[in-house]
């Protein structure tokens, strides 16, 4: 069977290749496993909670309507870090296409986490579409402002945890020349390094990354993941390294930071504002591609 639904999750398998599958937890509509020919592509903490008691540490948590912890907006500032989508149980809307196998999940205030919608009383409809290609995974989001009178102000981000072999042998390409905000230094500057490498905690937001740029994760000269984006101008690059991992109870093993890198495409530098009745769409495509070092224009 291509789509298997249980109370907790949905598993989508390629009809032509049962070793290629994606598993989506209804809580947060969180993709927490994507296997390509039996090989896991995403990192998931061994202490991740999959029982709905907290957002999943790993996979692809969804960040909406706010990235990080807001301190200025009247309503968004009341929400916890990264908003309410990853801590709400979504509705499984079913399979929408057989080739490539595609499923959808929906979230609206009536079913979202009531503790959180109380703090952020807005009208919205989110539709997440997950499409399992032969060697790719596309996650697409549509945000609709279902209010007839109020604007909807939000961030969106796919918090993608990629599985890698060894963080110190890994580099991320095609972000050179981009302006970034370093969340640890609290400073903005242009990244002049030809590639991003990792030797310590990293938490940066690249802004307005040209949509033509495919971000590539390269392990000792070999492309292991390629990330393409639509309508997601910013990219967060995060690795907690030693100390920060120690402080996260759901981050295990403690050496797990060596096998993960978060490359998170989003719209987070500023807010999207949707007029009543309007929709906004974006997607990320995780795939494999030739190594392509793109020149800075
Ligand atoms: O622990 P959380 O809420 O899942 O966040 C993890 C990280 O998410 C990243 O997106 C942020 O840039 C980091 O600052 C943050 O630490």
TrEMBL record:
<dbReference type="InterPro" id="IPR011013">
    <property type="entry name" value="Gal_mutarotase_sf_dom"/>
</dbReference>
<dbReference type="InterPro" id="IPR014718">
    <property type="entry name" value="GH-type_carb-bd"/>
</dbReference>
<dbReference type="InterPro" id="IPR008183">
    <property type="entry name" value="Aldose_1/G6P_1-epimerase"/>
</dbReference>
<keyword id="KW-0413">Isomerase</keyword>
<comment type="similarity">
    <text>Belongs to the glucose-6-phosphate 1-epimerase family.</text>
</comment>
<comment type="function">
    <text>Catalyzes the interconversion between the alpha and beta anomers from at least three hexose 6-phosphate sugars (Glc6P, Gal6P, and Man6P).</text>
</comment>
<protein>
    <recommendedName>
        <fullName>Glucose-6-phosphate 1-epimerase</fullName>
        <ecNumber>5.1.3.15</ecNumber>
    </recommendedName>
</protein>
<dbReference type="InterPro" id="IPR025532">
    <property type="entry name" value="G6P_1-epimerase"/>
</dbReference>
<dbReference type="Pfam" id="PF01263">
    <property type="entry name" value="Aldose_epim"/>
</dbReference>
